[in-house]
Protein: Spermidine/putrescine ABC transporter ATPase
Organism: Seohaeicola zhoushanensis
Amino acid sequence: MTTAASPVPRLEIRNLVRAFEGRRVVDDVSLTIMPGQVTCLLGPSGCGKSTTLRMIAGVEMQDSGEIWADGELVCNTIFRVPPERRGIGLMFQDFALFPHLSVARNVAFGLSGSAEEKRARVEELLHRVDMSRHIDSFPHQLSGGEQQRVALARALAPRPRIMLMDEPFSGLDNRLRDGIRDHTLTLLKEEDTAVLLVTHEPEEAMRMGDEIALMRNGKIVQQGAPYNVYTRPVDRATVSFFSDAN
Ligand code: ADP
Ligand code: MG
């Protein structure tokens, strides 16, 4: 047993590469995220953010590179833990609630255990996202923001060690967005989850990230604390990316 070991990253990706039709859309990407840390993968549309997330989730296979979680190999080019056994929660824009299931059944969807255990976890999560009164509602009876809160509860219910979020707030109107972002952050921090949040909005990355990884043309061009990335851009393209977005 080692005692003073350095902390093990919750998620580590090493030299991830994925090409489509000979073009590298993810080009040697490496990232390390500690438990409780939120890293925002920020970059313009088409730069390879979603493809990176899909490889970590296990629904897309990399051409080369490795994915590790809690010091264990999750995936390389010859070994692969299936998506459902990776301990990963997903909140994707196009990963909507199941329309034919009640809120309770949506949140219970990925849970195992007895009916009582599942019910208790569902009630706890719905309470924490302030949606208890909608436990028997169906998705179409909820507003966009309410649906998003249920989606968050569903993603957190199985206690994922890693949460992957792909532009999860982009469908919400501005008035609601700030509140839901803050609420989401609070919940994720409480669970000590490592979060990789994809966004094309600098403002969102500045607000939510402990760290920003700036991506362009498949590569991470800069990485660091939001303030440092914002105040010390590496090149002109980064300057205009930040200013165009304002
Ligand atoms: P982002 O999420 O940053 O907008 P994506 O990862 O979705 O970017 O896509 C990066 C690039 O890879 C885009 O040019 C996209 O068209 C291309 N791409 C993504 N998936 C596929 C695919 N299955 N086949 C071919 N090209 C793809
Ligand atoms: Mg995308």
Q: What stands out?
A: Strands lie at 11-20, 23-33, 38-42, 64-69, 72-75, 88-92, 162-166, 194-199, 211-216, 219-224. The pocket of magnesium ion (ligand 2) is lined by residues 49-50, 166 (CB under 6 Å).
